[in-house]
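Duplicate of #3305? Posting structure anyway:
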């Protein structure tokens, strides 16, 4: 019997059609364009570095309000005298305190939006958790060792409920969290009885709840522990998203869930974990809020939902999922804080502050749409 190597292809066989004709051009067609314009290169750069634009906006904002501060110090008549206070350490520390809650809740929102979802109930979970902590510790007299973990557990369970409805019932995240926003809000009214717990009562019964409002002084500047915790959480979740398999799974689930499933990622488990973690983060934010405002109020954090989405969008995270970062959200929160503070010092009312933030949101979404054309 002849071996395979001894078998020759008969004339007109399959192999004869694979031979290259003499003097035939063997060049392979290439469809990629190598003469990219400067605008195209910028588009690709921003696609790979989503925090670049918000960082530039933050620097420009600081430079603009810093220039107004210098003009105010020079006695220029058309600049409000209060603008000179912009670079004071005490004022900058106030900006950091003001964005602390927004940044913490924004981290929870970032995780959800990275999966191409959205959570409209983050503010309700924030308030409900801090109300439960406060009432069980102060009104019902529970030991802080039980009341505090109960508040954290409640926020985590609320997130788990959101994740379960999105994952197992396959309901749209917008509809699910819009419904739980009302449910958690009603539970907040039920538990709180629309009563505010005063700072003196908290200090007498459970001073630990106000720990995150304790300040470290650096001259005229004050850095509260809540802001330190916010920065520590930002570092932690930056590491999770950029250096762990779970973080890559979050990005993959938001970018293309079908491709992620084909790659062996359990997308349902990822979504369930993300919404649960988001609930826990909101509960931690509720604890920080007690120290920040010095009270337990059922009406606190009323704008947390919109503020968190604003920080995430301005920070460069795509509302379509798969692209964004915790660092961008932190920068986005600082942008809002810097612009509001600078405009207030310049003598502009809340109306124009809201107007400016609205313009920033529209610009951020427009830039995101432009950048997404790279992958289209």
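Output from current build:
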């Amino acid at each position: 019997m002849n071996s395979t190597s001894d078998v020759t292809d008969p004339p007109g066989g399959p192999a004869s059609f694979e031979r290259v004709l003499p003097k035939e051009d063997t060049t392979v067609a290439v469809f990629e364009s190598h003469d990219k314009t400067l605008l195209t290169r910028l588009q690709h750069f921003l696609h790979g570095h989503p925090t670049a634009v918000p960082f530039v906006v933050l620097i420009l904002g600081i430079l603009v309000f810093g220039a107004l501060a210098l003009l105010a110090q020079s006695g220029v008549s058309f600049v409000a005298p209060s603008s000179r206070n912009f670079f004071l350490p005490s004022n900058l520390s106030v900006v950091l305190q003001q964005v602390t809650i927004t940044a913490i809740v924004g981290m929870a929102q970032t995780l959800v939006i990275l999966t191409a979802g959205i959570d409209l109930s983050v503010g309700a979970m924030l308030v409900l958790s801090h109300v439960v902590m406060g009432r069980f510790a102060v009104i019902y007299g529970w030991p802080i060792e039980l009341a505090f973990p109960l508040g954290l557990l409640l926020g985590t369970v609320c997130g788990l409920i959101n994740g379960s409805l999105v994952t197992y019932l396959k309901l749209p995240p917008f509809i699910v969290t819009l419904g739980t926003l009302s449910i958690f809000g009603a539970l907040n009214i039920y538990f709180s009885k629309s009563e505010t717990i005063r700072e003196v009562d908290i200090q007498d019964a459970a001073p630990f709840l106000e720990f995150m409002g304790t300040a470290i002084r650096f001259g005229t500047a004050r850095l509260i522990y809540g802001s330190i915790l916010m920065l520590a959480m930002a570092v932690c979740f930056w590491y999770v998203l950029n250096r762990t398999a779970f973080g890559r799974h979050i990005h993959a689930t938001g970018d293309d869930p079908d491709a992620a499933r084909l790659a062996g990622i359990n997308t349902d488990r990822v979504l369930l974990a993300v919404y649960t973690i988001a609930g826990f983060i909101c509960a931690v934010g509720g604890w920080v809020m007690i120290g920040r405002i010095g009270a337990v109020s059922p009406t606190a954090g009323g704008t947390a939902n919109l503020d968190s989405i604003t920080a995430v969008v301005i920070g460069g995270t795509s509302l379509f999922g798969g692209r964004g970062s915790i660092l961008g959200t932190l920068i986005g929160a600082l942008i809002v804080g810097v612009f509001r503070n600078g405009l207030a010092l310049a003598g502009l009312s809340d109306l124009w502050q809201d107007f400016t933030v609205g313009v920033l949101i529209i610009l951020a979404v427009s830039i995101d749409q432009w950048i997404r054309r790279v992958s289209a």
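Confirmed duplicate; merging threads. Residues 267-293 form the longest helix (27 residues). Strands lie at 215-218, 221-224.
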